[in-house]
Amino acid sequence: MKIMVHGKVREFTEREIASILEEHFERKYFESDITPLVTATPTEGNWYVVNPEKIDQTLFEEVRDDFEQERVRKEILKAFTEMRKKPEVYLKPFKTMYPYRLWEKYMGKTFVYLREIAKIIGDDEADYIEQTLEWAQRIQNEGWETVCNNPDRARSYRAVRTQYPGLYKVYGASSDADKKRASATHMMNTQYLAEETAGCTVPLVVSRKFISST
After folding, report:
1. Residues of 41-71 as b/e, b for ≥16 C-beta within 10 angstroms?
2. Residue 189 has what pLDDT?
3. CA angle (90, 193, 50) in 5-degree steps
4. How many C-alpha atoms does 88 have within 13 Å on its Cβ side?
5. H/E run at residue 48
6. Which residue, 41, 39, 38, is CA-closest to 146?
7. What distances in angstroms separate CA 175 from CA 40, 66, 100, 137, 191, one per listed residue?
8. Which residues contact 55 (CB under 8 A, 6 or more apart)?
9. Of 22, 79, 163, 172, which residue is the least packed, with the fewest Cβ within 10 Å?
10. Residue 97: beta bridge partners?
C-alpha cells in the first residue's frame, strides 16, 4: 500500500502498517491513564453494551411519523433480518466504543488507518448491522427522540464498514466540526474508499471480549 509521508510516497505492507499503528497507539493510548468503562450511553473512550437477543423488537413494528425515526426504524428491521440469518455473528452480545481522537480535528485519516485503530482497541471496526443494532439498543433504553432527533454530543464522526468490502460510511455528528449538530443516527450520503480520508472521524470499535449474555 502506498502512503504519503512527509510529502513523499512510500510503500508499506499491511504488516508494516499494523506494526507502526500498534507502536503508536500502545504508546499514546494504552500507556495513558485512560481506563475504558462500560457506560449507560455511548461516551467518548468508553464501552457501550448491546444485547441483540434482549432487544424488544415490538418497539419497531409501528410506522413512525417523524422522518428520521422512520428511516432508522426501517434500517433496524433490516438489521433484525440479518441477525436472524446470521445468529452466530449478530445475536451474541457485543460492545461498541468511539475512541478518543488523538489527532487534530482537521487532520484527515484514511479509512484503512481508522480500521487498524479499531483492530488494536477491539476486535474490528463495527459494520453497518452492528451500528444499527446499537441504535436499536439505545432507542429501547433512551427513547426515539433522544437517539434520532437530539443533537449528537460526540466530538467525532464514526466510521463504519458497509456491506461492500472496502467501502465505508460515516455516521453521527462532530461537535468539533458542526455548527448545527445532527443526531447520532445521521448518515452522510457518501461512501468512502479505504484510501480516502475523513477529518474529525474515528472508527466505531466493536468487541465481543468479556461480555456476559445476562
Report:
1. ebeebbbbebbbeebeeeebeeeeeeebbee
2. 87
3. 20
4. 0
5. strand 48-50
6. 41
7. 21, 24, 13, 23, 22
8. 133, 136, 137, 140
9. 163
10. 205
Say whether 161 sits in a helix, a strand or coil.
Answer: strand
The three three-digit cell numbers of residue 166, written as one number: 472496502
Q: Output the tens digit of pLDDT for each of the chain's 214 residues.
A: 666 665 677 777 776 776 666 555 555 554 444 456 788 889 999 999 999 999 999 999 999 999 999 999 999 999 999 999 999 999 999 999 999 887 777 778 899 989 988 998 899 999 999 999 999 999 999 999 999 999 998 999 999 999 999 999 999 999 888 767 799 999 988 999 999 999 999 999 999 986 554 4
Per DSSP, the residues of 73-134 read HHHHHHHHHHHHH-HHHHSS-EEEE-PPP-S-TT--EEHHHHHHHHHHHSSEE-BHHHHHHH
Determine how β-strand 157-161 pairs with β-strand 167-171.
antiparallel
The DSSP symbol for 1 reads -
What's the CA dihedral at 185, 151, 96, 117 to 10 degrees?
100
pTM: 0.83
